[in-house]
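DM from R.C. (forwarded with permission)

"hey, sorry to bug you on a friday — could you get me a structure for this? deadline for the figure draft is monday and I only need the backbone to look sensible"
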Amino acid sequence: MSTSNVHPPESYSQNDVQEILHLAITRTADGSELSRMQLWEIATELDIDLDCLRSAERDWLNGKIIERKRQEFDYYRQEQLKQKVVRYVIINGFLLIINFLSSGTLSWSLYTLLILGLPLSLDTWKAFQTEGEAYEKAFQRWSLKKQMKESLSGLWDRLKKAWQS
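My reply, with the result:
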């Protein structure tokens, strides 16, 4: 279908406007980044209220911070899972060897392999589950715990400096 026969509509939805402007800005910028000043100039040209732009920029920055924290939390959960997998392999490897050396076959150690594998499989599922209420609660707990550690560490550092002075 030829684009020359397509007539633009008389009005656009907000999503359509965002997509069109995004494409236009991307093409204009030639793949390079826009400065904050350029952002403000574009907003002024589009008659966007500067307070509205500041608020949107602040929300965007807060969203980036939360996104970075979520990535850090996901990495933390995956590292915890790696440690559990290593423990599982060591414990079950040891039990398999004992079982094989004592009886020449693998019998009871297979049961421990399965029994200890169940919690590991649940932890694996949890580590890669990045949506839902359980994830949100775990993220909030981790975030609060991390904030408490940082606060206590900062307090401890100030107390040490005060004591040394």
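R.C.: lifesaver. The longest helix spans residues 50-103.
me: no worries. The chain is about 80% helix and 0% strand.
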